[in-house]
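testing teh design pipeline on a random one, pls ignore if ur not involved
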């Protein structure tokens, strides 16, 4: 059996729910990804949003990984960039090129959309993610800030 890569559409809510399960387990944060899964209508609407890109990786008919990304339209020039928000692979399928394959599928989509770059952040200490991204792109050391809305 080999891995297959697919971009989800609005009719793929079940696959998105499977990917949310993979994210929760991989990030050791099941509560965030499984504690309040939105209704199907919300997920269908999300998948129908042109700026939302979800790629899943299947092994047979099982979702074992994938990524969620956003297309951002830029102000300074007529161009786009893609931000990978989440990317995860089930533990038993890691170190087999699955994450790289998902990113390569996103690169294909990004080229079709006329994007000029894909960017992603990795948490300090997440050495496997940092190693993956360093092998695929150029590292930039930046600071990330969460601005509270209270």
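output:
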């Amino acid at each position: 059996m080999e891995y297959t890569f697919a971009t989800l559409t609005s009719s793929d809510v079940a696959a998105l729910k499977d990917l949310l399960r993979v994210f929760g387990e991989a990030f050791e944060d099941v509560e965030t990804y499984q504690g309040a899964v939105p209704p199907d209508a919300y997920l269908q609407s999300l998948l129908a949003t042109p700026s939302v890109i979800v790629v899943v990786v299947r092994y047979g008919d099982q979702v074992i990984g994938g990524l969620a990304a956003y297309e951002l339209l830029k102000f300074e020039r007529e161009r786009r960039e893609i931000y990978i928000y989440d990317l995860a692979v089930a533990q038993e399928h890691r170190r087999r090129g699955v994450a790289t394959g998902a990113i390569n599928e996103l690169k294909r989509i990004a080229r079709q959309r006329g994007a000029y770059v894909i960017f992603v952040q990795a948490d300090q200490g997440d050495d496997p993610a940092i190693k993956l991204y360093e092998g695929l792109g150029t590292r930039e050391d930046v600071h990330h800030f969460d601005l509270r809305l209270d």
